[in-house]
Amino acid sequence: MSMQPVLAVNQVTKKMGNEQIIRSVSFNIERGAVFGLIGENGAGKTTTLGMICGLIRPTSGSVYIEGVPVSSRRKHVLRQVGALIEEPQFYKYLTGMEHLLYGSRLYGKVTTERLDEVLSLLKMKDFIHKKVGHYSLGMKKRLAIAQCLLHCPSLLILDEPTNGLDPGAMIEFREIVQSITSKFEISVLISSHHLKEIESVCDQFGLLQKGELTLLGGNKSSSSNSVVFVIEAKELDKALNLLQQQNYIFEPKLYDHDKITFKMDRTHYSSLLMLLSQVEVQSIKEKSFDLEEAYLELTRVDEWGGS
């Protein structure tokens, strides 16, 4: 029996006037997984997050959190969500602790133990009693994430969380996300245009381009048998023709003018070697998925009017 995803987005669309903002977007987030939603400004990321949180009503499609529809049971569902949409705003004359205590009263049933657990995880105890007016941007973002975690949500949504952070704060952010998922088993949805940040911290990712999810992928796992291979051969055309004829090889194509890439399950490796013995192969390598490369390739095609 398969486990129910924490978040299920099913063919969601959004139309404003005559303009189609979001086009049939679908993806799931499993429990404890980190999903990165990437795209340029105006791609539709914040609109998509708004529909997930119930702040924007989809034109069609559905969103489920813990198996419950957001559209009909929004108030109940949002008790399972902690969301940081856009930049956090705080009262400068209040301390971080005063903000958290006020938030805990709004949530209700936030124990002292839970508050202490969140502060320890986010490494905030050294500054939590200082006034927020003296906080750096990174400290403010940690405070905002702490507020999102107080009520023990199953889904944490972060919209452009690394904006404005220096390299050191970005490293701290990655460590925080990893700590949150390992300690609390919370699923995390991150919206960002910082490609390398998404690639390093996420288990799965999707590229949103002009309101359409044009790429879904996952970080390479040593337990996965399905990988991308790259070969170099003197007789490229012959090698490509041979690969195209095999039913265990998928998407063979020329790459960088002098190479061929294709997808294949590792269990067919011996068959591949026998096949390539018919051509003069110079090298066979596994190619790890490069999110930035895929992103640039897709946006480059769009820029030049390709399809």
TrEMBL record:
Q: Supply the Gene3D superfamilies for this chain.
A: P-loop containing nucleotide triphosphate hydrolases
SUPFAM superfamilies reported in the protein's UniProt record: P-loop containing nucleoside triphosphate hydrolases (SSF52540)
Q: Which InterPro entries match?
A: AAA+_ATPase (IPR003593), ABC_transporter-like_ATP-bd (IPR003439), ABC_transporter-like_CS (IPR017871), P-loop_NTPase (IPR027417)
Q: Which UniProt keywords apply?
A: ATP-binding, Nucleotide-binding, Transport
Which PROSITE patterns does the entry mention? ABC_TRANSPORTER_1 (PS00211), ABC_TRANSPORTER_2 (PS50893)
Q: Where along the sequence do coiled-coil regions lie?
A: none
> Recorded GO terms, molecular function?
ATP binding; ATP hydrolysis activity
Record-annotated ABC transporter domain positions: 7-235
**Top-level division of the source organism's lineage:** Bacteria
The record ties this protein, via PANTHER family, to: ABC TRANSPORTER, ATP-BINDING PROTEIN
- Which family, according to UniProt? Belongs to the ABC transporter superfamily.
In Swiss-Prot or TrEMBL terms, this protein is called: Bacitracin ABC transporter ATP-binding protein
